[in-house]
Design brief:
Radius of gyration: 20 Å
Largest sheet: 12 strands, mixed
CATH class of the largest domain: Alpha Beta
Number of helices: 16
Helix content: 25-40%
Distance between the termini: 19 Å
Strand content: 15-25%
CATH superfamily of the largest domain: Periplasmic binding protein-like II
CATH architecture of the largest domain: 3-Layer(aba) Sandwich
Number of strands: 14
Structural class: alpha/beta
Shape: globular
Number of domains: 2
Length: 386
């Protein structure tokens, strides 16, 4: 499946301009403290290369990290604690989607740290590109949501330090549609014909499957028959669309103006439009909300092993989590983040004060590896071509 963020990165704005557009520091305000049930997380410290005792010390490493990530995550607040510790400024390179990042990695692009969704960990392991983290070297690791960290594990080893998360669900105009209907059906409803906007992603097929009565687990691994059913349903309902968006700011504007009544969206859409007073609701579907999580993976051949762990520790800090939530309205894995500067409606809608519950099944289904990813991509291409 193509990355959840394909459209975002194809947007002419990208994440860097997103910050200027949002201005969340002035938009979001309120109270709350991130609180969730903590559980012990096993320190999965083994790696596939030389043992830490056999590695050169951090002072002997090259020192300049190469970070392969989404545009916007190079902003200094994201790695502020790392910078304050006196480490050299990393060199950032960017990809537009995770499929591209995998292809470039397989083709030999060098990096120390990358930032994919958890659903791609298996793909990176399959090409031998990454190694597990030594979580004993990440001081902030025990502050991270254990459920999210389990999503970053394979065979009991921590291949990804999961940092940020969010939802993919409908945002609706409450002056046209009923917010008491908690369902992905808003995105396929003939009653909203001409006023529906899909994102350009195969996740539409998964949302179609949920609307048709498939379970949250099933839609991540549909049988050929189920995928065909979801595809045909999407093709049938495509005639009710206003558009398929790739530029999230255009989607925001369409909802803002009332041209679109129901749109596939991420949490930032609600945070922005709600703060502006637009009559919107973010729907958490009763079928189970599809959610995503992403974080940091460590290259199998990095020469900056200890610098990489220091950088991951920075990303895992409550300080960085605070900034991310206030500026992107995404969740962060650190359970010590103070939500006092966040709109309480945003906290409530996205369950930021209880991520353990709100990311647990059947309330939510976190993105996972798709063994038949290529089939989903083909089916979605057929929907768009129909």
């Amino acid at each position: 499946m193509r990355s959840e963020f394909d459209g975002l990165m194809r947007s002419p704005m990208g994440r860097r301009a997103l910050l200027k557009y949002l201005g969340y520091a002035s938009l979001l305000g309120g109270t709350g403290v991130l609180a969730a049930c903590r559980q012990d997380v096993t320190q999965t410290g083994t790696d596939q290369g030389a043992s830490p005792t056999a590695r050169p010390g951090i002072e002997e490493e090259p020192g300049v990290l190469r970070v392969f990530t989404w545009a916007g995550y190079e902003l200094k607040p994201v790695w502020k604690p790392y910078r304050q510790a006196g480490y050299p400024e990393p060199k950032f390179s960017f990809y537009t989607n995770t499929e591209q990042a995998l292809a470039k990695t397989a083709g030999g692009q060098d990096w120390d740290i990358a930032h994919p969704e958890t659903s791609y960990i298996q793909d990176y392991v399959n090409i031998g590109a990454i190694q597990p983290w030594d979580t004993s070297l990440i001081e902030n690791f025990d502050q991270l949501n254990p459920m999210l960290q389990r999503a970053g594990q394979l065979d009991g080893q921590q291949y990804e330090i999961v940092t940020d998360w969010g939802y993919s669900a409908p945002i609706i105009r409450t002056d046209h549609l009923d917010p008491s209907i908690k369902s992905y059906s808003h995105l396929f409803d003939p009653a909203a014909s001409g006023h529906i906007s899909w994102f350009d992603t195969p996740w539409i097929l998964m949302m179609a499957g949920l609307t048709l009565g498939m379970s949250g687990d099933e839609v991540f691994d549909m049988t050929p028959e189920q995928l065909e059913e979801a595809k045909n349903f999407a093709i049938d309902r495509k005639k009710h669309l206003y558009n398929i968006w790739v530029d999230f700011t255009q989607m925001w504007d369409d909802v803002r103006k009332g041209v679109v009544w129901a749109a596939y969206s991420w949490p930032d859409t609600f945070a922005v439009l709600h703060a502006e007073g637009v009559p919107v609701a973010y729907i958490r579907p009763e079928e189970g909300t599809l959610s995503w999580a992403e974080g940091l993976v460590l290259h199998a051949e990095t020469e900056n092993y200890y610098h990489a762990h220091e950088y991951a520790n920075s990303w895992a800090s409550a300080e960085v989590g605070q900034w991310l939530i206030e500026n992107y309205a995404y969740g962060h894995a650190n359970l010590n983040v103070d939500l006092s500067n966040v709109d309480p409606d945003v906290v409530k809608v996205f369950g930021l004060d209880d991520p353990e519950y709100n990311l647990s099944e059947p309330v939510s289904y976190i993105d996972r590896w798709l063994p038949n990813r290529a089939a989903y991509n083909r089916a979605w291409d057929e929907v768009k071509a129909a």
